[in-house]
Amino acid sequence: MSDSTPGPARAQPLQAGGAPPAHMPLVLIIEDEEPIRRFLRATLEANHYRVKEAGTAREGTLLAMTTYPDVILLDLGLPDGDGLNVTRVIRKESRTPIVVLSARGQESDKVAALDAGADDYLTKPFGVGELLARLRVALRHANSATGRGPTGSAEVPPYECTADGRTLRVDLAARLVFATDQATDRESPGRREVRLTPMEFKLLAFLVKHAGKVLTHQMILKEVWGPQHASDVQYLRVYAGELRKKLEVDPAQPRFIVTEPGVGYRLASGDGT
Question: Which end of the chain is more exposed for a tag (fewer CB within 10 A), N or C?
Fold first, then answer.
């Protein structure tokens, strides 16, 4: 973490001597650099999170299995093991969201972390606002994963996001997509139904189910087109481009379907993150 990293965002402090309420989300920090752990703890506690800390891969893995955190912040460069291996071990036993924090900025490192089971990736140094936004997304996904229908499949609520004066609404259950320009009333001609091909809708549906998360090219291709198309990245780019033409105000500067260079795509979450 560089010295230019902003200080922790301020919120109402806890009462003196009081322990954090049990209903506050618990974040496990697995990071070997003590100054970074202090910064993260101060930031998170100021924003109403409970915190557990670990400085090694072994300690972090143990705490992940015994304290049942709501989110894990994991550094890749640990003194007694690679964070990728920690991710794989945790993922075998738990679906707890893992947000990787690392100075490694190579695209291949990001892909490796996501393929190992991480849910998101932040490169140091990062801003407090971005960190908190990614935590909110991770918690939303964790909470939605517990809402199951009678068939055992997750019920996905309608997706809605506003960017560049346009609101995009996707109702997967009804298979309806609407784009509304905010300059006009929602029931005026400014609200239009977006017609998608079956494959375009399938791609958009997968993105909606994981809104706010980085999805690698391979993840998307395997799920939407099947394992035999896992390397057909250009195929995916064509369909993403067609979706942008239909959904974005300016397809050349997309705000809904965002490219993660060299990695994949992220559908903006409901709060625009």
Answer: N
CB burial readout 187-224, b (16+ within 10 A) else e: eeeeeeebebeeebbebbbbbbbbbbbbbbbbbbbebb
Cα separation, 209 vs 148, whole angstroms: 13
Q: Using one digit for the tens of pLDDT, what is the confidence trace for 139-177?
A: 988 876 554 333 333 567 899 999 988 999 999 999 999
- Least Cα distance to 26 among 97, 75, 78 occurs for 97
Please state whether the peptide bond connecting residue 125 to the residue before it is cis, i.e. omega within 30 degrees of 0. Answer: yes
> What letter would DSSP give residue 152?
S
| Beta carbons within 8 Å of 23's beta carbon, 6+ residues apart | none
**Which of 26-45 are b and which e, b meaning 16 or more Cβ less than 10 Å from the residue's Cβ?**
bbbbbbbeeebbebbbebbb
The answer to whether the CB of 175 falls within 8 A of the CB of 194 is: no
**Closest Cα partner for 162 from 182, 145, 146?**
182
